């Protein structure tokens, strides 16, 4: 995944899916990388949303300016 960059990290899968969906709706390629350990019941690790490096600035602007989960 060397040509991809992280634009969002969370411990909540549904939030990562929302971010990915919004980025894809805007015409950006986005994937989810789940680094949580599903073998233990304690939440450990993060879920990352990644985009190709050439879409990084546009994706970061969308995430920072248009998304809020609070």
């Amino acid at each position: 995944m060397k040509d991809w960059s992280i634009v969002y990290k969370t411990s909540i899968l549904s939030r990562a899916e929302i971010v990915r969906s919004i980025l894809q709706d805007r015409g950006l390629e986005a994937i989810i990388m789940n680094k949580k350990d599903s073998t233990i019941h304690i939440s450990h690790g993060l879920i990352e949303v990644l985009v190709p490096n050439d879409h990084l600035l546009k994706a970061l602007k969308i995430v920072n300016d248009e998304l809020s989960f609070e």
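The mean pLDDT is 88. The domain at 4-66 is CATH 3.30.70 (Alpha-Beta Plaits).
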